[in-house]
Write a structure and sequence with these properties.
This is Probable ATP-dependent helicase dinG homolog. It holds the Pfam family Helicase_C_2. One of its GO terms (biological process) is DNA repair. Keywords: ATP-binding, Helicase, Hydrolase, Nucleotide-binding. It is a single chain. The protein is an alpha/beta fold and 341 residues long. It folds into two domains: 53 residues; 210 residues, Rossmann fold (3-Layer(aba) Sandwich), CATH 3.40.50.300. The protein is 47% helix and 12% strand. The chain contains 13 helices and nine strands. Helix 6 crosses helix 7. It is globular, with a radius of gyration of 25 Å.
């Protein structure tokens, strides 16, 4: 889009306007701090605009975003490997990276290759949690297809008995804001338990309300997939609406897919699948946060057990017992409550 003639003409007009501002303010340098700051900003914007106009430069994704108040022109590097190697050279020594979610199918190559760490030594350590006893993974039968019309209503009807049997204490993590809103609406219309929705107040307040209620369902997306730590009985069920593949319309993903093809790679297995696995692991990690935690993870996507690549997801998740029967999931939660009393 940025390479289209009409857009290039508009960028040229913008550059002319910035150049005029630059020339005028340059004559007034030193007269006031505000003018000096404006000059520096004009200089910065001219340099950024010059880079954005060079849409043929390889290794970058050029994209834009609009809303009712403003627009954003963005340039995003497809890889940070070269820049990161420069940082390593600038600060020689040992670098240690630790994470609970960066391995894919028990391999760390996806992470090391993106950072250009060709000589990195890797080590996978076992979890301190006993997932065989602490957790159960359920992929229910008779799930609606991803993006199926009316899917939110079907999921809400299917999962309401599980949520009610657990007396709330549940995160429902969604892969889109639309699904999040539709599910919250369905649950609020059919359940008496408190239903909290991301966006209705701040993240911190939502978490405080969730813990204080003791029987709430929190329906959320994006930011609640990671960086959230709710331990103990306050959270014993995490439900995920579907495998978190990035939208194919995402401009950065499109650019990375094309770059992968040009390098002779397999875009699905080299880009889309590893990214989705890592995102899923982050969401799954909300459930078991301590050695005393127990709970059920529900993933509402048949592809996990019906598609060959589902094994990559399963092999990357903690080694928990599995079931397709929601009644077994309810029984597990009830047994966990009984053992805690």
């Amino acid at each position: 889009m940025l390479g289209e003639p009409n857009v290039q003409r508009a960028l040229l007009l913008l550059d002319d306007a910035l150049e005029l501002c630059y020339d005028v303010m340059k004559l007034s340098l030193g007269r006031s701090a505000l003018l000096d700051a404006a000059f520096e900003r004009a200089t910065l914007y001219r340099a950024r605009l010059k880079r954005l106009k060079a849409v043929t430069e390889p290794g970058y994704s050029y994209w834009y975003e609009c809303n009712s108040r403003h627009f954003v022109l963005a340039l995003t590097p497809l890889t940070v490997a070269d820049r990161f190697r420069e940082m390593l050279d600038e600060k020689p020594g040992s670098w240690i990276f630790t994470s609970a979610t960066l391995s894919v199918n028990d391999q760390l190559g996806h992470f090391t290759e993106r950072l250009g760490l060709t000589k990195a030594k890797t080590l996978l350590l076992p979890s301190p949690f006993d997932y065989a006893k602490q957790a159960l993974l359920c992929v229910p039968r008779f799930l609606p297809s991803p993006n199926q019309p009316g899917g939110a209503r079907q999921l809400a009807r299917m999962l309401r008995p599980l949520i009610e049997a657990n007396n709330g204490r549940c995160f429902f993590l969604c892969t889109s804001h639309q699904m999040m809103r539709e599910l919250a609406e369905e649950f609020r219309a059919t359940m008496t338990l408190p239903v909290l929705l991301q966006g209705e107040t701040s993240k911190g307040q939502l978490l405080a309300q969730f813990v204080a209620a003791g029987n709430a369902l929190l329906v959320a997306t994006s930011s609640f997939w990671e960086g959230v730590d709710v331990r103990g009985d306050a959270l014993s069920c995490v439900i995920i609406d579907k495998l978190p593949f990035t939208s194919p319309d995402d401009p950065l993903l499109k650019a990375r897919i094309e770059d992968c093809r040009l390098r002779g790679g397999d875009p699905f297995n080299d880009v889309q699948l590893p990214d989705a696995v890592i995102t899923l692991k982050q969401g799954v990690g909300r459930l078991i946060r301590d050695t005393d935690d127990r709970g059920v993870l529900v993933i509402c996507d048949n592809r996990l057990v019906m598609r060959p690549y589902g094994e990559v997801f399963l092999n990357s998740l903690p080694p928990t017992p599995r079931t397709r029967d929601l009644k077994q999931a309810i029984a597990f939660l009830q047994a966990a409550d009984a053992s805690a009393t």
